[in-house]
Design a protein that fits this description.
413 residues; mainly alpha; 57% helix
């Protein structure tokens, strides 16, 4: 079969047949059956399919299949004009806000891009300028960037991380004296990882420090991740390299102190220059340990023998002061994705189906603005008061609405 014949057969497939495979690729858990993104994407794809079939829109809308054809819409029917019409359909729904229209279209556009990669479509028609032209202008609210952890979400995530760490530490510290050394090391490694994750979650949840100020950025050597020498647990502060390109002190509120102190005691970093949140990636650590010990004059067979004495290379790195790199911001997102899924937090957000790092910062901003006003919140968030007022203007609007309601009750009453 030549390529043109194969392409032609692909184009004749009803495009709805691709939905399940796409959703599995985007879903969470075994078989790709879970996740909020999958659920939301499935809803929007179903709406798009109904519209394409002529079942959703104005009464005179008959869909994208030619009138003389009695079949389901196929990939052959899709081009940029179809996506332009769908964008116009979404924009014409007066019940949808501007940013909601943009969000709904993004779900369809993401599927279109996937179809190109999978060979169903020849081009990403949904991203062409003519297709996107009917979409409303961005109203500046950018819902995908505005996730804020609620009090309930913050509590659920921190409690889950705390319980995991407590259980792992208790398991390690209560092992019988005759426990096999490698089993003891495995228990310590598990406890260290859980304690690291707990400390990271609490720092992101309560300090409002930007994740890029806390962890390593592979593209910026100045951002190598916070080290133990930059944290004063007793003093309740942490030095971070701020977004404004200078070092500054950030506060460590009470909820953060205990997780950090417990974690440091368990880790016992060989020097204060160790990263607070080191990577636990086995391949990275294996290469690092081998290279560092070789640079110190160790022979390959001696290195192999030394590594064989440890259940994990991280534990050897601790004993030999082979300093690992900090996790990256992407690593933090992976940790939060895993923890969010593990504790089954209810998250309804168009872009993130987990509690993203910036949501912790924004959630603390909400708390501070409501409790102490914009001036105090701006200082804690390391932002100008003007910017904080702009980003949290919905709080002031709600409060003014309460004032107006009270005034109406007094006057009209």
């Amino acid at each position: 079969m030549d390529r043109n014949t194969s392409t032609k057969r692909t184009q004749l497939i009803p495009f709805i047949d691709s939905f399940e495979r796409y959703l599995q690729d985007k879903g969470k858990g075994r078989g790709g059956d879970g996740g909020n993104y999958r659920r939301n994407a499935a809803r929007e794809l179903e709406r798009f399919a109904e519209w394409a079939a002529g079942d959703r829109s104005d009464d005179d809308w008959t869909g994208i299949v030619p009138d003389n054809a009695d079949r389901e819409p196929t990939f052959e029917d899709l081009d940029e004009r179809v996506f332009r019409e769908y964008a116009r359909h979404l924009a014409g729904d007066r019940g949808l806000k501007q940013n909601t229209v943009q969000t709904y279209y993004r779900y369809i556009s993401a599927w279109c891009g996937w179809c190109v990669n999978e060979g169903y479509l020849e081009a990403h028609y949904a991203q062409r300028a003519s297709a996107m032209a009917p979409l409303p202008e961005d109203d500046g609210r950018k819902p995908g960037d505005q996730q804020a952890w609620t009090s309930e979400q913050r509590h659920a995530l921190t409690q889950h991380a705390d319980e995991r760490a407590r259980n792992a530490i208790e398991t390690y510290t209560t092992l019988p004296d005759d426990t096999d050394p490698l089993d003891r090391q495995r228990a310590r490694y598990t406890a260290l990882k859980a304690a690291r994750d707990r400390a990271l979650v609490f720092v992101l949840a309560y300090t409002a420090v930007r994740v890029g100020e806390l962890l390593r950025d592979p593209n910026d050597p100045r951002r190598r991740g916070v080290r133990w020498e930059e944290i004063s647990i007793d003093g309740g502060s942490m030095d971070v390299y701020r977004k404004k390109q200078q070092w500054d002190a950030a506060s460590l509120p009470d909820p953060v102190i205990s997780p950090l102190r417990s974690y440091r005691k368990l880790m016992e970093p060989p020097t204060a220059r160790w990263p607070v949140f080191p990577t636990f990636d086995q391949r990275t650590l294996a290469t690092l340990v081998q290279d560092e010990l070789a640079d110190r004059g160790e022979r390959p067979d001696a290195i192999d023998e030394r590594r064989g004495e440890y259940a994990r290379d991280l534990l050897l790195a601790l004993d030999e002061d082979v300093r690992p790199p900090s996790i990256t911001t992407d690593g933090a997102r992976s940790i939060l994705q895993r923890l969010s899924e593990d504790c089954d937090i209810d998250i309804d957000h168009p872009k993130h189906d987990y509690l993203a790092p910036h949501g912790g910062r924004r959630g603390m901003g909400e708390v501070l603005v409501r409790a102490f006003g914009y001036t105090v919140a701006a200082r804690y968030l390391d932002n100008s008061e003007e910017m904080v007022r702009e980003r949290y203007s919905h709080i002031e609007a709600g409060e003014l609405g309460d004032v107006a309601t009270e005034a109406l009750s007094e006057i009209d009453g």
